[in-house]
Amino acid sequence: MISKNIEENKDNLKELFNNTSDLILYEFKTLSNHRALIAYINGTIDKVSLNEDVLKPLVEELVSPWDIKSTVYTRINDEIKELKDTIVPINNGLVILFMEGLDFAYTFDLSQWPKRQVEKPTTEMVIRGPKEAFVEDIIVNKTLIRGKIKSNNLIFEDYILGEETNTKVSLVYIKGIVKEGVLEEARYRIEKIKIDAILDNGYIESYIDEKPNRLISTVAFTEKPDIAASKILEGSVGILCDGSPNVLTVPKLFVENLHSAEDYYIRAHYATFLRILRLMAFLASFVIPGVYISLITFHQEMVPTELLISIAGQREGVPLSSPFEALLMILFFELIKESGVRLPEAIGQAVTLVGGLVIGQAAVEAGIVSSTMIIMIASTGMAEFVVPKLRESIPILRLIFLFLGSVSGLYGITSGLVLFTAYLVSMKSFGVPYMWPIAPYDKEGLKDTIGKYSVRKLNYRPEAISNKKRRKRNERID
Questions:
Q1: pLDDT tens digits, residue range 365-412?
Q2: pTM value?
Q3: In the chain, where the domains are located
Q4: Residue 94 burial by CB count (10 A; 0-12/13-18/19+): exposed, middle or buried?
Q5: Strands across the sheet with 237-241, in order?
Q6: Best CA proximity match to 39, nearest among 56, 58, 61, 17
C-alpha cells in the first residue's frame, strides 16, 4: 500500500528499486504547506515540462491536496494505490507524484526517450516510392502506419512482454479485413510468450513461428511503413516491438520474397520482368554450384567440347577436387560477405572489394582454384543479393545442393528440387498455405504473384489472407 507519510514512501521506493543511482526522488512543499514527492528515472522525462506543468503550479498555486487535478497544467494518467504498481510506469518514463495525507499517487506521462529520427531505409532501398523507414520507438512507428492508413478501423492492441524488460508490443490490423482465425492465432501466440527479455522482434519471431528451426521463416518483416501498410490493407496482422526498427507481418506467403515495394509504383510489365528475374536469381543462387560440379564430374557429355577443353585446361595443376574447390570458394565468399557486413561502413566496402579481387586473383595465379570456379561462385553471390529476404536460407541451400551434385550428379539436383518444392508446398503460415496462390491454385491471386497486373485490375484482396474475398473498389475497372 502507498503510505500517507512521504518519508515512508521514499524509503520504500529506494528499497523497491534497489537504491539504483538513476532513480530521482525529489521532495518539495506546495503552497498549502503539504510535503510532496516526485519519482522518475533520470534521462527518461521532459524536465522542462515537469518544471513548468507540474512543479511550478503545485508550489505556487495548490491550496489543497484534493485540487491537484485542477492545478497542474498536464493530464493525469492514472491513480495508483499499490507501491509495487509504480515499477512499470516509472520504468516507462512516467512521473509519480506522492502527496502527504493521500494514500494513493498520481502518474504523469512526461516521457522523453532518446530516439533516432525517421530516415531512409537501409535494407529495402527504392528509386521510386516513399523513402522513410521505421525507427526504434514504437510510438513513432504507430504514427507512421497511422499516417498511411487514416481509418477508424485501424486497430492497435498493446501487450507488455519480458519479465525484466517490460517491452511494449503491439498488434495492428484492420477490422473487417483481417481474417478472424489469423488474428486469434496471433493473439494466442503473443500471449503465450514467457521470457525475461524482449530486445527486438527477432525474439518474438522465434516464438510465433510454427517451426522456428526450419530452413525458411513463415514470418515476414519490413522496415518500410508503406510495405507494412499495404500488407495490413490486404488482411495481414502487423506486430510492432518497442526497440526494433522493423515490423513483423503474418501470415507470410512465398511470393512476398520476390516482391518489392517499388513493384507497385512502376509499370506492370517492368515489375513482372523484375519478379521473373528475382525468381531466376533465387534458383541460380543455390543451384549453380551443384549443377556445375555435377556436369564436370558425372555428365561431361552434356558440356560443349570447346568449353570442356577450356575448363580442363584451367584445372590443370589445381590440386583440389572440384567439389572441395567449390566448398572452399563458397566458404571464402561467406567469409568476405560477413566481414564486409560487420566492419564499420567506411571500410567494410573497401575490405570486401579488395579482399575479393586481390585474394581471388592470387588464388587463381597460385593454381589453388580455377577461374571458372570463381566465376560460378561470384555469380551465385550476386544472385543471392537480388532476393535479400531469403539471405538466411540461400547459403544453406547452396551447400545442400553442392553435396547432392557432388554425390549424385543431375539426378541428385533434380531430386533435391522436387523435395524442396514439396517442402514449400507443405508449409503453412498461421494456417495459410505458404505457396498460395500457386498451390492451392487461385486464378485471381495469380494476378499479383510472379506476373503483375496493373493496379487498376487488382480488384480483390488475397482470399487466403483477408476475411472474405472483398473488392478493393466499388466498381470494376477493365
A1: 767 788 888 888 888 988 988 898 898 899 999 999 999 999 999 999
A2: 0.85
A3: 6-108, 138-264, 268-426
A4: buried
A5: 154-161, 167-174, 237-241, 247-250, 220-222
A6: 17
